[in-house]
Design brief:
alpha+beta; 7-stranded mixed beta sheet; 6-stranded mixed beta sheet; 21% strand
């Protein structure tokens, strides 16, 4: 097996194409920007080689379009202040790294998915373990394969962009790229997305306090893993047929059919609980959290009904929490009876998850902005932490589905061949984290699951899971 080597060729700062006005030099972060302690939400975009544009020209277009995008998203070119409450918009720029991938062509690499967990992080820029005033907010690494294919690793501070906001930035960046590739004038090109930079801090001001950061760190503390040795990340891919089967199995009388995300989340939760039982010898209580995008909940809660939150930056999200206290299904019971009981589990878990998600609604969004907002948020976090003295398992879900990554990521040379999360080799990371991403076809889901090695091995052995998913398939097969 050849060894993947990624060699940095150059590093430079990409500054905004126009300077930021002096009255915009201080950008306030919002209260909800303190919720997620992960420093970055990395993503990697893999593009096939093309013959119509040289590699050198593609890299020039990436940098030129990034410079224009940073003029609009100017806080991404600044520095996080030491107080963690604001950004100094000093136009220092974004870090742009050019690297060469030795030994592998793009398709050779994508044909070896067994390498992804340990090697994907090489396509990401520098040190992604933390953000501070000494680091760049925006970090881009363009990795050029020997065939001319390119992998673009993107790490932008989670304090400024959640998943939805990252997709908004990507749409703007690529729209500029398409204009530059086509040679159209700025006036003739379709208008770029105008982000709503100030909505998050207006809706959720910090009032100069970091109490949510401290509370969330306390909540996440037992889940944040610094080491690499005990964990592994694998991709479980559900195609449209598998999801249709799950929806059929999860159907409930007189209830709306579950969504793709609901049924895949509930099924993986069920399988993880089964693996936990095999590991511990007893069925332990289980807690699931799911990140909820508040943008669709907030317009009815805002005083200004005309405000557009679809393209708002920052972190407009909260967590839904569901619990399961499913009892043991005895090993001495008949196989048919065991299967009947198992068939009842999935609809129940879908119902628990749906109930939890339904609580994070417009009323909740309005209440956490009110006078009792702080106490409600604290109660919500403490409710997640409170296990009633039980030793329970935790699984944290985050869905990147329906963001339209493949459509958003066309710089003018086609959609990416693959949009990738990262493996467990990039520390620090969350244990028992499950990220859901659409497949390129749009009707399937790639679930990036990070567990300890023993539980992962048990999870892979669950027959119901084996029947429905492909484990770590090559993205070339999916395409």
């Amino acid at each position: 097996m050849k060894i993947l080597q990624v060699e940095v060729v150059s590093e430079e700062k990409i500054k905004p194409s126009f300077p930021t006005p002096s009255h915009l030099r201080t950008f306030k972060l919002s209260l909800l920007d303190q919720l997620i302690p992960a420093p970055y939400a990395p993503i990697i975009l893999f593009y096939d080689p093309i013959t119509t544009i040289t590699t050198t020209k593609r890299l020039e277009l990436l940098k030129a379009s990034l410079s224009e995008a940073l003029t609009v998203f100017y806080p991404l070119a600044g520095k996080l202040k030491d107080d963690e409450l604001s950004v100094e918009c000093n136009d220092e720029g974004a870090a742009f790294i050019e690297a060469r991938v030795k030994s592998f062509s793009l398709h050779e690499f994508l044909s070896h998915p067994e390498l992804f967990d340990s090697l994907l992080n090489q396509f990401l820029p520098g040190n992604i373990t933390h953000t501070s005033s000494s680091n760049f907010i925006t970090n881009i690494q363009a990795n050029v394969f020997k065939c001319g294919g390119i992998a673009i690793g993107i790490c932008i501070s989670h304090k400024l962009l959640d998943g939805a906001a990252l997709c908004t930035f990507l749409k703007s960046w690529t729209a500029i790229g398409r204009r530059l590739v086509s040679g159209s004038s700025e006036k003739a090109a379709p208008p770029c997305i105008s982000p709503n930079l100030f909505a998050a801090a207006s809706l959720f001001p910090t009032n100069g306090d970091l109490w949510l950061r401290d509370s969330s760190l306390h909540m996440w503390g037992s889940l944040f893993i610094q080491g690499k040795e005990s964990s592994v990340t694998k991709r479980f891919v559900f195609d449209a047929s598998a999801i249709a089967t799950l929806k059929l199995n999860a159907r409930m009388a007189r209830k709306k059919p579950p969504t793709r995300v609901e049924v895949v989340s509930a099924f993986l939760w069920q399988c993880c609980m089964a693996a936990s039982k095999d590991k511990h010898g007893v069925q332990r209580p289980s807690l699931l959290t799911h990140i909820v995008n508040l943008r669709s909940k907030l317009p009815t809660a805002m005083d200004d009904s005309d405000s557009d939150l679809e393209h708002s930056t920052g972190n407009l999200l909260w967590m839904a929490a569901a619990r399961s206290y499913i009892g043991d299904i005895g090993d001495d019971e008949e196989e048919e009876e065991q299967q009947q009981q198992q068939n009842l589990v999935l609809p129940g878990l879908v119902s628990e998850l749906r109930n939890a998600l339904s609580k994070i609604d417009a009323d909740f969004a309005k209440e956490i902005r009110g006078k009792q907002g702080k106490s409600l948020m604290i109660d919500s976090l403490e409710g997640i932490m409170n296990s009633d003295g039980l030793d329970l398992d935790y699984y944290g879900f985050s869905s990147w589905c329906k963001f339209g990554w493949y459509e958003a990521a066309d710089f003018g040379w086609g959609k990416p061949a693959w949009v990738s999360s990262i493996g467990s080799s990039s520390a620090p990371h969350f244990m028992n984290l499950i990220i859901l991403v659409d497949t390129k076809s749009g009707d399937g889901i790639e679930a990036w699951v990070t567990l300890d090695q023993r539980q992962m091995a048990l999870l892979e052995g669950i027959s119901n899971l084996q029947k429905l998913v492909s484990v770590d398939p090559s993205p070339l097969i999916l395409n």
